[in-house]
């Protein structure tokens, strides 16, 4: 299999997992805007590309697909997901499977407030969310929501800009200052997440791996432990049935008062997919079958509980000259 | 060599480097308060220990040294450095080299305001620092310091609690609310750092590796590039001549208006020592010689420029049962 990872950045371990499953014959091609993207060191070929907002960007990615005879393409950064989705037909015309959701779903995942409205329309348990201070105030005065609340940007990924707000006055001040913020109920339950693979042929979720944060007595490091719950698996299927995903994705949840609440969906390989892989949930084999045109049988929950993942910092060290020499030109 | 790493946490790559230099015959023993410390997976023996504030802590570490016939001990967390220093004689009575500075130096490094006063007394270029709002205000009114400034806790490590403050009113508010904060000149120059090894026999710095942050067009990831400057090496020697270090340490600097300014010293293996090791600056061999009672010849600047380090996330994955079974009991 020849696979292209766009905006590969620091995802070295993901590439190592691909190499482990696919073997030496696989061709791993990567791109990044920066030449100092550590994951380039684990690829067969690395291209330095313009920013994804550059008009020449997609034509260049398509050219790389042609030149490298790519079978599947995906991206590791959120703002690029909808871009790949929008150009799906051009990739498919070259025989390339696009491991990204269909356009509408891609856009929903990137705008958390629109996602909230969508989920509510479809009766899916999610976190109470308000698009403006006024909307929040109306609900607050009716007693539907309490302070403190959580504010976060409606676009964007991760926890950048997210914070807890204690008072109405401060809430007004921060939302006035930054219109991109939305207001959410402060969840106090356990946070969990699931890595899911949606088969690109059958369009059904065929693998789910769920894990929760491990409480630790010291340090705030990223440590998770696998668990299984049929109710969570059913909830995942209910959510995914309302949208059009394609390939790997990562879903965040809260578990509170005996119920699961969907928090957000990142429709790409999650940073902690490494845990699923290490516990034997191999999305890479599923991609391999899909690329051949085969559907994958359902293997949901096919892993052990109490498998622990502990993250740490690793490094790539290379001479500047070697880094420059390793970049391929089109 | 038998080496003990206290509070080993996530320092997996450091342990891998030790294994690489020392070979299979070396015994790497580690402790941590948490049983889910990923670096335990790279040790020969791992002990779960009480918090460093527990009265039984040091006796237990000494017992481990006896049982494991340890030759050298060090810690990977800042609050433990002075503790090891204070008990140096008990370790030395067991034939254990303590890779930590002598007590007074250890305390200075942990209290950044006392360090500032010490550096000023010794005529060493450092960043203007004020212990209280009143002290700052006096200097501000004389025009000796401008806003914005930087506040950070006088104790503690890393950048936790550090932030830029724009106005006098806010500065008064935050320093009133948190007396642990000190006020520093906002440095706009380049930040650099150096990994240094102070020979434990000759008490001289014998190896220095310096690197600067690499400017990147995208992402805030940790990327550094090696450089050499005799003026920086001379400055390092000047600083170290005023204190009593012993073993590995990490120094942070700013370079502004053609001058180096010392920012802080962490007298332990820095998180980015991996860069030095990858560029061939092997402190582990130096420790090995010191443990044998030999001095090391000076090898300052013995590395190439333009060697790049790029950090990424890696993981340890193990079953909970295996983690529990791997913990050794005293």
UniProtKB/TrEMBL annotation, chains A, B:
GO terms for molecular function: ATP binding; ligase activity; metal ion binding. Gene3D superfamilies: 3.40.50.20, ATP-grasp fold, A domain, ATP-grasp fold, B domain. Residues 116-292 form the ATP-grasp domain. Keywords: ATP-binding, Ligase, Nucleotide-binding. It holds the Pfam family PylC-like_N. This is ATP-grasp domain-containing protein. It comes from Parablautia muri. The lineage of its organism: Bacteria, Bacillati, Bacillota, Clostridia, Lachnospirales.
């Amino acid at each position: 299999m020849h696979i292209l990872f766009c905006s590969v950045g620091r995802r070295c371990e993901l590439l190592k997992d691909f190499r482990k499953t696919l073997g030496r014959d696989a061709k791993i091609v990567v791109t990044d805007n920066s030449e100092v993207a550590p994951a380039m060191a684990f690829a067969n070929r690395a291209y330095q590309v313009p920013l994804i907002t550059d008009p020449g960007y997609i034509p260049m990615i398509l050219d790389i697909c042609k030149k490298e005879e790519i079978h599947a393409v995906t991206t590791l950064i959120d703002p690029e997901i909808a871009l790949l989705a929008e150009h799906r037909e051009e990739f498919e015309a070259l025989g390339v499977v696009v491991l990204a959701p269909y356009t509408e779903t891609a856009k929903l995942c990137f705008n958390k407030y629109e996602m909230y409205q969508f989920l509510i329309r479809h009766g899916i348990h999610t976190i109470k969310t308000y698009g403006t201070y006024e909307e929040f105030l109306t609900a607050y005065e009716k007693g539907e929501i309490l302070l403190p609340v959580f504010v976060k940007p409606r676009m964007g990924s991760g926890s950048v800009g997210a914070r807890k707000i204690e008072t109405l006055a401060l809430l007004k001040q921060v939302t006035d200052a930054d219109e991109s913020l939305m207001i959410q109920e402060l969840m106090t339950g356990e946070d969990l997440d699931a890595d899911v693979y949606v088969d690109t042929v059958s369009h059904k979720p065929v693998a789910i791996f769920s894990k929760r944060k491990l409480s630790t007595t010291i340090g705030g490091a990223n440590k998770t432990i696998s668990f299984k719950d049929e109710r969570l698996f059913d909830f995942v299927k209910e959510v995914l049935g309302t949208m059009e995903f394609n390939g790997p994705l990562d879903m965040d949840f809260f578990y509170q008062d005996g119920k699961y609440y969907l928090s957000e969906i990142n429709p790409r390989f999650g940073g902690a997919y490494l845990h699923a892989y290490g516990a034997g949930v191999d999305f890479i084999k599923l991609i391999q079958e899909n690329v051949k045109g085969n559907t994958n049988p359902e293997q949901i929950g096919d892993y052990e509980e109490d498998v622990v993942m502990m993250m740490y910092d690793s490094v790539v060290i290379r001479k500047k000259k070697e880094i420059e020499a390793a970049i391929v030109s089109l």
